């Protein structure tokens, strides 16, 4: 689902089985959705997608982190 800004995507309304999103090298797998990526992950994805030098890395989605903590892992 896209909002008015092309760079912003929202996955909260659409269920997904994806839990890991990559960023770096001028690209990012996801937009800057803080609900999906958390604050740090969203900011890193945004910086990578606009071409700032961001080392390659990944973000685990917020829903997966929440599930991990809820299950006591």
Could you explain how this protein is built, in words?
The chain has 73 residues and is of the alpha+beta class. It has one domain: ATP-grasp fold, A domain (Dna Ligase, domain 1). The protein is built from two helices and three strands, in the order ββαβα. The protein has helices spanning 34-49, 62-70; strands spanning 20-24, 27-28, 57-60. The protein has a three-stranded antiparallel sheet. The longest helix has 16 residues, at 34-49. It is elongated, with a radius of gyration of 12 Å. Residues 1-13 have low confidence and may be disordered.
Question: Care to give the gist of this entry?
Answer:
This protein is of the alpha+beta class and 73 residues long.
Largest sheet features:
3 strands, antiparallel
Whole-angstrom Rg: 12 Å
How many structural units, i.e. domains? 1
User: Helix and strand string, N-terminal first?
Assistant: EEHEH
Mean pLDDT: 80
Structural class label: alpha+beta
Helix tally? 2
Low-confidence stretches: 1-13
């Amino acid at each position: 689902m896209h909002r008015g800004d092309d760079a912003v995507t929202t996955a909260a309304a659409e269920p997904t089985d994806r839990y890991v999103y990559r960023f770096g090298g001028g690209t990012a797998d996801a937009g800057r959705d803080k609900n999906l990526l958390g604050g740090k992950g969203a900011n890193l994805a945004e910086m990578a997608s606009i071409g700032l030098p961001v080392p390659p890395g990944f973000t685990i989605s917020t829903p997966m982190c929440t599930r991990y903590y809820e299950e006591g892992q």
